[in-house]
Write a structure and sequence with these properties.
Structural class: mainly alpha
Number of strands: 4
Strand order of the largest sheet: 1-2
Radius of gyration: 29 Å
Distance between the termini: 48 Å
Number of helices: 6
Helix content: 40-55%
Shape: rod-shaped
Length: 130
C-alpha cells in the first residue's frame, strides 16, 4: 500500500480486525463516519489517539473500571493416586526405566502418584535425555 492509497474507516477496521462497537466508538469520538476515506497513516494516528485517551480515562476513573474477568479453571477429573509399582506395570515400563525413575524422583514402590505425574516424570527424566 502506497501513501496515495486511501480506504474508508470501515475498510481499515476490517483490515485491523476491529469490533463494530470499537469502530462506532472511534467514529463518534473523532466525528467521522465509517465511510470517511482516510490514508493508512491517518487511521493509525486516530487509533493511537484513541488508545491514549482511553488509557488516560482509565487512570482518572480509577475504581470505576470493572475488574478483569477470570476464566473458570476446568475441574480435574477424579485422578486417583495409585502405587508407583502398579502404574509402572500398567504402562509396561522396563526395569531399568523403573529404577531410573526411582532414583530421579525419589519414589518407592508404594509411593502414591497419579497418572499425569508418572507421564510428566517419564518425559522429564527418560525421554528428554540428550
Amino acid at each position: 500500500m502506497t501513501a496515495q492509497d486511501r480506504y474508508s474507516a470501515g475498510d481499515f477496521a476490517k483490515r485491523y480486525k476491529m469490533r463494530e462497537t470499537d469502530l462506532e466508538r472511534l467514529c463518534k469520538r473523532f466525528g467521522i463516519d465509517a465511510e470517511t476515506v482516510l490514508s493508512r497513516d491517518e487511521f493509525r494516528k486516530l487509533l493511537e489517539a484513541d488508545k491514549d485517551e482511553s488509557s488516560a480515562q482509565a487512570t482518572t476513573e480509577g475504581t470505576n473500571t470493572p475488574p478483569p474477568k477470570e476464566e473458570p479453571v476446568p475441574e480435574k477429573k477424579n485422578e486417583k493416586k495409585v502405587a508407583f509399582s502398579r502404574l509402572a506395570a500398567e504402562h509396561r515400563l522396563s526395569r531399568p526405566r523403573i529404577a531410573a525413575l526411582k532414583v530421579c524422583t525419589g519414589w518407592g514402590d508404594e509411593t502414591k502418584i497419579t497418572e499425569p505425574e508418572l507421564k510428566a516424570a517419564v518425559l522429564k527424566h527418560l525421554k528428554n535425555k540428550e
